[in-house]
Amino acid sequence: MGMSAEEEHALSPRDEEWPEAEKAEKLARGAALKWASGVFYRPEKLEGLGQYQSREMQRNNSIQSRLKSTVQSYLEGVSAGLEQLRSAAQEVQSVCQDLGAARWALLDSADHFQGLQQMRALMVEHVQLASVVQVLPQLFSVQEVFSHTLHLLNGQHLLEAHAELMMMEHLRDDILSQLHLRGLSSAQTTVLSYFGGLQELNESLAKQLWDIVGNSLRLVREDPVLFVTAVRIIEREEKIDDTLLLEATFLPPGRPKNWKQKFYQVLRETITGARFHATSVDAEGHGLARHLATLQKDIVSELRVVKDLMVQCVPAHYNILNICTITYHQALTSHLQDILQEDLDKQALFLLLEWALHVYHSPDMMSHPDLLPEVDVSALGPLMSPELVDQTERKYVVKVKASMLEWLQRTLEVEFKEWFREEEPETDHQGFFQSALPVIVMQMLSENIRVASLITDSLQQKVYTMALEELEAFLGRFREALVQCGKEHQKDRAVPKYYVSYLLAMLNNNLALSSSVSSLHPNIACREIPMSLQAALDRTQKKTCQLLLEELLLDLQPLCLQLPSHKWLLGSQLVNSICEVINKYTKDFSHVRKPIFMLLLTESELLVASQYLRALMQKKMVCKNKEERVQLCDRLLQDATQLRELFCGLGLDGSQQSLEAVFALRELICLKDPALLSLEVLGFITKYPDISDEHISTLLDLRGDVSKEVRHMVLEMMAQHPQVLPESYRPIFSTILVPTPELPFCLRKGKCA
């Protein structure tokens, strides 16, 4: 079933030329081999081998016949194509010969074309002249129409003048359009020279129109026909502009005129006239108030005219009322900014804020019943931006602060002078000393905060914060004035005459301020006094109490200097005198309110106790024997008891008195056995932890019977039991200084005794 080498060689060129044939042949061979293998493996199939061979021969003959027919048809087509290519090549060669002949003919005729070019230029010039000649009758009549139109303008026959003006513009534009289409640009220049007066007429008409628009608010009330005429002319021109922009192949000179935009511009300039262009406004409140009132009246009046009259004189699409409203709004916004550039006083700033934030949008102005509902005030927005409002509020606060500082200083000066009067301060219905100071100060602060609340909550908060800061600063200056008054009193205790009474009045005033400050807070639910201000009030109260106690001390010191002494041991006259001084001062203290009275009573008791103990520790006396110690203890008991009963009678509970230290000290001195002093001193220092070694040593000296060993033992015991001051403990001994012991005199090389 294989093929010979010659057969393979004969097939190879065809296989290279027709790869599809090679593939088909391989597939056919494969199918034949597969069939043959099936036949030879199955003997029963060999009987039909002859029939199969006959069928395959018939099939091969049919295929060869069809192949021959196809190849014959292909060869006939190729022969016809080659014949057409030969014919086309001959025709192309003929055309090339004809083109060459034409080229040589054109080269021979080049000289004749120069004459044709000159003829063409003459023809174009002739056409241009012919076009100009056609419109000459109309061009010659232009000057006459110009004169007539100018006459109409001078007589304010605006519609007729505008009609002729449009006619001439139409004529000019028609001529120029025809020339433009024909490309006759040189003729256009000639035509334009005839219409040179159109520009002057346009300017004259426009001037009259803008004069009418500038007086539109007056004309719509007095002579609306003139204003309507101007609007009709503007509408005509606007339509011409729109038409030319959409349809014309070129724009004539002076187009588009944009007279509608100019109408809006002139109307805006009329609205924002002299009233908004003032170079400066009176910085005082009265002048600005008149200016703002005038603006309010004029704007409402003019918007009424626009709404009721002008709207009827212009087309609806002009939206004239909205345009005017927005123009007023923008002009006012800019105008207020210009005003704020001036150095305005606090009244002017308040008026400006009130006018911009409240009056402007109120029924008295932009929400006026005559303007609603056409004027939508909500669409206008704020007249002042939030940033500008905040900036203006801060300026206002600065001005109010300066004014408040001046008034508070003046009030303090008046108050300071009253302290030196020859009469007691005034009293209220309960007999408490007082002055007008807290009422004046609180009225001033509360009024400024209340006025600020009429503008905005933020301004009220700013003024409130500033007012508290100024009150705190005022209290500082007030304390300085008290100190100055105290210095004057130290020079001469007769000046001021009622020094104590006025100090008591100041305490009542300070208490009144403290109780009234919380009412200044804008928020009723949050009325806490700031810590710094409360501290300033406390310092003022403390300083006043200090001056009063210093005055009491001046009267107590001469008496305390007389104890301890033998005269003191023998009688109670000295303590009686102290009680008289205390009674005198507590009688004055009755003119202050109870919280302050109790404070003064407590401090006075502490002062008396500390001065009494201080006198005992000045080392003026040492008990020589047991009898003197007993006598000293009896005197201490009588004095302490008398003073304690005095203060209890005045309302100070015994448990709150510092005189208990005198009773405790007496126990140390009354102790019979010095060896027990360590235990007694331990209890004493536990109760009074601010007592020092020097204080105990001085008390031991006062006994006169304490040996060095006992003293050493007591002091060592104190060193072993250091004390810590409790938070609620009121120091008494720490304010008492013990005199320094005198050093024994020593020779240079000797020993001290």
UniProtKB/TrEMBL annotation:
Main location: cytoplasm
BP terms from Gene Ontology: exocyst localization; exocytosis
Listed GO CC annotations: exocyst; transport vesicle
Region feature Disordered, mapped onto this chain: 1-23
Keywords of the record: Cytoplasmic vesicle, Exocytosis
InterPro entries per record: EXOC3/Sec6 (IPR010326), EXOC3/Sec6_C (IPR042532)
Annotated compartments: Cytoplasmic vesicle, Secretory vesicle
Pfam families: Sec6
UniProt keyword Nucleotidyltransferase, yes or no: no
Presence of keyword Transport: no
Record's subunit section: Interacts with EXOC2, EXOC4 and EXOC5; may be part of the exocyst.
Function: As part of the exocyst, may play a role in regulated exocytosis of insulin granules.
Membership in a protein family: Belongs to the SEC6 family.
Name the UniProt record assigns to this protein: Exocyst complex component 3-like protein
Species annotation: Jacana jacana
Gene for this chain: Exoc3l1
